[in-house]
Design goal:
242 residues, 4-stranded mixed beta sheet, 44% helix, 3-stranded antiparallel beta sheet, elongated, alpha+beta
Length: 242
């Protein structure tokens, strides 16, 4: 893969991550900070099944737009909202909704705004993974195994290196100019490739966290929210949506 320098995700470095408390990963704050905006108003895409994930603050204030592939819709004017119970999302300050009357068409020509929204979700997932990585480091740093620091174990170091390499690959990628074997690739395939790499990074994080009694902690929370984001916000035509 020939990756051209220049990135739509460099701004990840400017996102402030508050990791002083392991009780939360700030997924709601990150979603609002990293979401696409039009005239300073958050815009969120609707999945082809009519789902949208928002923050609880936005839900109560009703001050955001949803996009169905055709129109920008003021959420305050939407009726027939079904709230989906999800304790993990709700514990993170998020809310999952189903809007039966607004679905993004499964058979839709490429839409510039919708793909811009999907790009913002790539950034969101990448940031969640970065948060998980930092929490894993924080969790493992004081631990020892085999008479030495756990974090200095060669296997553990290799796992951290793999995750960092994946994140750096994504952050250094210009999403408009990814080439594979010298050929330009479609945006749909490009997104699948990036999400697959993020899945691999989260898989490594799961092993690092789960192996040290951290299964129900914030690292797994970041993984869960990341998977919900991917499954809801990638169209069915890409084979990744519910």
């Amino acid at each position: 893969m020939n990756l051209v320098e220049g990135s739509t995700t460099d701004c990840i470095k400017n996102v402030k991550l508050d990791l002083t408390s392991s009780a939360t990963i700030g997924a709601d704050v990150l979603l609002e900070e990293l979401s696409h905006r039009i005239n300073e108003t958050v815009v969120l895409p609707i999945s082809s099944s009519g789902y949208v994930m928002i923050t609880q603050r936005l839900y109560h204030e009703k001050n955001f737009f949803i996009y169905n592939g055709k129109d920008l819709i003021n959420f305050g004017e939407v009726a027939g909202i079904q709230e989906v119970t999800d304790p993990i999302l709700e514990g993170a300050g998020l809310k999952l909704l189903r809007l039966h009357q607004y679905k993004y068409p499964q058979k839709q020509e490429e839409d510039a705004l919708y793909y811009a929204l999907l790009e913002s979700m790539i950034l969101y997932r990448t940031t969640l993974c970065t948060v998980g990585l930092e929490l894993a480091k924080k969790h493992l740093s004081p631990r020892t195994s085999g008479g030495g620091p756990t974090i200095q174990n060669q296997l553990v170091k290799a796992n951290f290196t793999d995750i960092v390499s994946i994140l750096e690959l994504i952050k250094s990628t210009n999403h408009e100019n990814i080439k594979y074997t010298g050929q330009q690739i479609e945006k749909k395939l490009k997104h699948i490739m990036i999400h697959n790499e993020l899945d691999r990074a989260f898989g490594i994080l799961q092993k690092l966290a789960g192996g040290h009694g951290f299964v129900h902690g914030p690292i797994m929370q970041s993984f869960y929210i990341s998977q919900v984001s991917k499954n809801l916000l990638i169209p069915d035509k890409e084979g990744m949506s519910v």
